[in-house]
Amino acid sequence: MLSVESVEKSYRKGGLFSKEREHVLKNISFECKLGECLGIIGESGSGKSTLGRLLLGIEKPDRGSILFEGKKVEDRKVRTGNLSAVFQDYTSSINPFYTVEEAILEPLQMKRKAREEALSEIDHLLYQVGLDPSYRKKYPHELSGGEVQRVCIARAVSTEPKCILFDEAISSLDGSVQMQVLELLKNLRKRYDMGYIFITHDIQAAAYICDRIMVLRNGEIEEIVEVEQLKDVQSTYTKKLLQMIIA
Ligand SMILES: Nc1ncnc2c1ncn2[C@@H]1O[C@H](COP(=O)(O)OP(=O)(O)OP(=O)(O)O)[C@@H](O)[C@H]1O
């Protein structure tokens, strides 16, 4: 489904006129199959979110290609309805002047669904994420963090994309809400038959939901492991990273 080939990305380091560049992603190549859940873990600054933005086509790689079913993700038409995302900062993910109903309608209408048809889907989408129809008329400030994140998930699944990218999307929720959201994501994945890219610091969450886990180290892929083989990782770095985050 997603095919990443020899991707490189660097940013200007220092001021606007500086010629120095920071090489953030180096020679990244991997495949993510249809319906697969791939976790991306790594220390802070290892390039996880940058890779996420490139996968979503929000930014372009300097070199290399990112293809979704053979076509460049940079092309908006390729992304619309196929790829969606849920970010950590859910407070700014939803327009504060939109009700829950309007927030969920937005992506549906971008997919050119008729307003009446889109409106009729909202109750079901809310139900899928464990919210009742009374939430339709509420504004984000009237909801708890977990509820806003559920609305973001309802928005993300509304167009039935083939892949959703979660960038630290559950890390700021408290323990029991995190567990509920993970459970919800597991169920939605089965129901809608879609894949996830799951960027996180939380190896336990990644192991719970993912099929494979990619370890990023200083912008390079250190290792990609099947979740069942997590105990038998090869590299000393991954072993240390796992010990550090599990401890
Ligand atoms: N738009 C940008 N302009 C300049 N530098 C950037 C930009 N985005 C990211 N970087 C740099 O790229 C490096 C990797 O950042 P990135 O956010 O991808 O890491 P991360 O692994 O997601 O980190 P964290 O876990 O802390 O979120 C960092 O050194 C960061 O300062």
Automatic annotation (TrEMBL):
Give UniProt keywords alphabetically.
ATP-binding, Nucleotide-binding, Transport
State the PROSITE patterns in the record: ABC_TRANSPORTER_2 (PS50893)
The protein's matches in InterPro entries, at most eight in alphabetical order, are given as: AAA+_ATPase (IPR003593), ABC_transp_ATP-bind (IPR050319), ABC_transporter-like_ATP-bd (IPR003439), P-loop_NTPase (IPR027417)
Q: Which positions fall inside the ABC transporter domain?
A: 2-243
Task: Return one GO MF term.
Answer: ATP binding
- Tell me which SUPFAM superfamilies the record gives: P-loop containing nucleoside triphosphate hydrolases
Concerning PANTHER family, the annotation shows: D,D-DIPEPTIDE TRANSPORT ATP-BINDING PROTEIN DDPF-RELATED, TRANSPORT ATP-BINDING PROTEIN
What's the family?
A: Belongs to the ABC transporter superfamily.
Q: What is this protein called?
A: Peptide ABC transporter ATP-binding protein
Gene source species: Brevibacillus porteri
